Fold these 2 entries.
Entry 1:
Amino acid sequence: MKKYLYLPLLAVLAIALSGCVADDVEVREEYYYPEELALIQQTLDLPEKPLDYDVQLPTHLSRSGLFARNINRDMATLGRVLFYDQELSSTGEVSCASCHKQELAFSDEKASSNGINGQQTDRNSLALGSVASFAAYYGVDLFGTFGVPFMWDNRFGTAREQAKAAFTSEKEMGMTIESLIQTIEDREFYAPLFRRAYGSTAVTEERIMSAVAEFVDGLGTFDSKFDQAAEASTDGINMNVPFADFTALENRGKEIYLESCAGCHSSVFGRPVMNEANNGLSMNYEDEGIGGFTQNATDMYMFKIPTLRNIALSAPYMHDGRFESLEEVVDFYSDGVADHPKLHELLRDGSGQPLRLNLSSEDKMALVDFLETLTDVQYLQEMRYSDPFK
Ligand code: HEC
Ligand code: HEC
C-alpha cells in the first residue's frame, strides 16, 4: 500500500526538480565513492567516470541494415580490466591481451600464440573488433536478425562462452572457475568495479563472463580510410563508384575486391554473406575445421570466413598462419587456389576448375593497397580499449 502512496509523490518531485538537479544526480550516479576510486587508482589508470563505449556506425553500414546496440559502460569497464589482467592465468603471466594486442587490432604476430608455460595454441589468433562478427552489432534481413559465431571453427555462439573457454583452456590461461573467482575476490580493486556493474560486489562466473563479453562485443572498428572514403563518396549503398579519396590503385583494388572477394568477405564489411567456406589452401588439410567440432561430413575442412577489417595488422594469415604477408595471400588467390573437394564454387571457374585470377603485378599491388585501406588507426589507440593497468 505504502508503495502506491510514494510513487506519485516521487513523480511530482521529479517534475518539480527537473532541470536544476537532474544533471547533478546523473553525474553522481556515475561516480565511484571516493574511497573506491582511491583503491582503484592504486593499480589502475581509470578515470573517475567510466568511459563511454557506445559507437556511431557510419551511414554506409547503418544503411546496409546494421545496428550497434548500446554498451553498458560499467560492465565494459570491468570487462576491460579482466581482459588485461595477467593474474587471471595460472602462471600470472598471460592475459587475453597477450594474444590479442590492441596495436595489432587485437591479434598477435605469431602463427600460433603463446599460452601458459610456453604452450602454443593450435591455430592463429583472430583479430577482434569488427561489425557483424560481434553480437553488439547485428543486422536484420528477410530472415530476421543474424549474428556470427566465434572461432575459426565457429564453435562458440557467444563471446561469453568464448571467454570461459579461454580462461579455462589448459593451453591458454589454465584457470578453473573456482581459482578465477578466488583470484578476483583477492584483488580488492575489483569490488567497486563489480558494484558499479552489477549493484553488488559478488563475483560469479556469470558476472565475469558477461563483463568480458560486454567489452569484447563492444570493440567497434569502422573508422578506416575505406569507411571515410565510402562515407564521402557514396550514397551508402553503391560501393561500385570510384571513391574520390582513394588513389587510382586503391580504386582498382576495390574493383577487384568487389568482383572476386566480396562474395565471401562481404561487400560493405558489415553484413556477412555466409559464415564459412573452404578456400582451397591446399589439397590436404591437417585441421578439420568446423567438421572437427561438429563431426558432420558437410562441415569438414570448412573454416570461418574472417573479417578483413584491419587485415594489414594481423599477419600471419589463415587459420594456421601459413602466409606471412598480404602479398602472399594475393598471390595465392591469384594463382594458387587448390582443387580441394570442398573448395567453394565462388573460387571455381565456369568449367569447375579452381579459379585463376591471373592478376598482373600491378593488379596485385592494387589489391594489397585496397586491403591496407581497411586499417583503422584510431582503433589502435583508443583509450577505452587500452590496457588500464599502471
Ligand atoms: C594463448 C593465446 C590466447 C589467449 C590467452 C586468449 N586468446 Fe582469444 N584467441 C586465440 C586464438 C589462437 C584464437 C583462434 C582459436 C581458434 O579459432 O581455434 C582466439 C579467438 C578468440 C575469439 C574469436 C574471434 C572470432 O572472430 O571468432 C575471441 C572473441 C577471443 N579469442 C577472445 C579472447 C578473450 C576474451 C580472452 C581472455 C579471456 C582470450 N581470447 C584469450 C588466442 C588466445
Ligand atoms: C569462397 C569464399 C572466399 C573467397 C571468394 C575469398 N575468400 Fe578469403 N577467406 C575465405 C576463408 C574460408 C578464409 C579462411 C581460410 C582458412 O584459414 O582456412 C579466408 C581467409 C582470408 C584471409 C586471411 C584472414 C586472416 O585473418 O588470416 C585473407 C587476407 C583473405 N581471405 C583475403 C581474400 C581476398 C583478397 C579475396 C579475393 C581475391 C578472397 N579472400 C576471396 C573465403 C574466401
Note: The pocket of heme C (ligand 2) is lined by residues 260-261, 263-265, 277, 279, 281, 303, 305-306, 308, 311, 314, 317-319, 329, 333, 344, 346-347, 367 (CB under 6 Å).
Entry 2:
Amino acid sequence: MRRPLPIALGGVILAGGILAGGAQGEPAGDAAAGRALAGQCRTCHGLDGVAQIPIAPHIGGEPAGYITAQLTAFRDGTREHEMMSIVAKNLTDSQIADLAAWYNSRTATAELRADPAGAPEICVACHGADGIGLAPDVPNLAGETNIYIDTQLKAFRTGKRVHEVMSAIAAGLSDAEIRAAADWYAAIGFSVAPE
Ligand code: HEC
Ligand code: HEC
C-alpha cells in the first residue's frame, strides 16, 4: 500500500491519490507467512521495508506485482546483484508471493519538501513528483538514496538491467540528468508506518 500525504506548499494543498498496490491475476500471498520470512531481509531492508544500508532500496509499500517480478528476476538471473541473487536463489514461488504480500501490506508515505514544479519532467507521469509510483508496475523512488537511483539508471542505460520502458528512457539520459533525477527523489522524505 502506498499513501502520498497531502502536501502543504505555500498555502496550496496538493492531494495525492491513494493507490492500492498489488497486481491483478496473481496468487495472493500470505502476509503473515511473509513477515516470518522477512527475518532474512531485515538486516538490509528492515522488517517494514525501510532500507538499513545505503545500497539497498526501500521496499515497504511497493506493489506486490513489482516485488514479485524483481525477486523472480533475481532468482532467474535476468536481474543480477551479488547480494540479491544469492538471497533469491532458493525462494519458491509461494515464498516470493508471501514476501510480496508482507511488504505490500506496509503503508508507505512520501513527504515532498520542495516545489513539485522542480521535479524531473520526464519522470513524473509514472513516478510522480513525490516518487510514489502512479501505476501498479511502477516502483516508488521516494527517499531512495541517490546512489541506488543512480546505479539503477546506469544499469538500465548499459543494459545490465533491462525493462522495455526504463531502458529506452535511460538511454537518453546524460550522467548529469541521472544525477539530478537521483538527487530530486533522494531528497523526499519516506516513511513506512510500523506494524
Ligand atoms: C545483504 C543485504 C540484503 C538482504 C539480506 C536482502 N536484500 Fe534485497 N536488496 C539488497 C540490495 C543491495 C538491493 C539492490 C540491488 C541492485 O542494486 O540491483 C536489493 C534489492 C531488492 C529488491 C528490488 C527492489 C527494487 O526497488 O527494485 C527486492 C524486491 C528485494 N531486494 C527484496 C528482498 C527480500 C524479500 C529479501 C529477503 C528474502 C531481501 N531482499 C534480502 C540487499 C539485500
Ligand atoms: C512511462 C513510465 C515511466 C517513466 C516516464 C519513467 N519510469 Fe522509471 N520505471 C518505470 C517502470 C515500469 C519501472 C519498473 C522497471 C522494472 O520492472 O524493472 C521503473 C523503474 C525505475 C527505477 C528502478 C527503481 C527500483 O526500485 O529499482 C528507477 C531508478 C527509475 N525508474 C527512475 C526513473 C527516472 C529518474 C525517470 C525520469 C528520467 C523515469 N524513471 C521515468 C516507469 C517509468
Note: Residues 57, 69, 120, 122-123, 125-127, 137-139, 141, 149, 152-153, 163, 165-166, 169, 173, 181 surround heme C (ligand 2) (CB under 6 Å).
